[in-house]
């Protein structure tokens, strides 16, 4: 997985894209943390990566991770759009679509193929929150 992740970081380095890792690789001990850092350096992990054991509650508990790796695709609005897309070609397709939407939103427009119903007005609250 790391070689593909590394290629995505390089491919979209100038785009609205961020890869964030959460690791549960025995980093609760100093020796385990040292080993993880050495492996990350050896494999060229350049993206932000957090220790699951380094937070309370654990990140995996908060996000209800049942197995490793678990992949979440979070868009520019902070919404989980996909989970566990693992096929590399499908992963890139999903990410390209999300990046196009983020770029369009940054320019105040919409990408080709987006229907008006896909965009929510930012100033309106859901009906259950109105008073």
Short description:
The chain is α+β, with helices and mostly antiparallel strands and 131 residues long. The chain has helices at residues 2-11, 30-43, 59-62, 88-107; strands at residues 20-23, 48-51, 72-74, 80-83.
Layout of strands and helices, then pairs:
Blueprint: H1 2-11, E1 20-23, H2 30-43, E2 48-51, H3 59-62, E3 72-74, E4 80-83, H4 88-107
Characterization of this structure:
The structure is a single chain. The chain has 131 residues and is α+β, with helices and mostly antiparallel strands. It has one domain: Glutaredoxin, CATH 3.40.30. The chain has four helices and four strands; from the N terminus they run αβαβαββα. Strand 3 and strand 4 (80-83) form a beta hairpin. The longest helix is centred in the C-terminal third of the chain and has 20 residues, at 88-107. The relative contact order is 0.12.
Helix proportion? 25-40%
Structure summary, number of beta strands: 4
Detail the poorly predicted runs.
119-131
User: What is the spatial order of strands in the main beta sheet?
Assistant: 1-2
Radius of gyration: 18 Å
Shape summary: globular
Largest sheet: 2 strands, parallel
Strand percentage lies at 5-15%
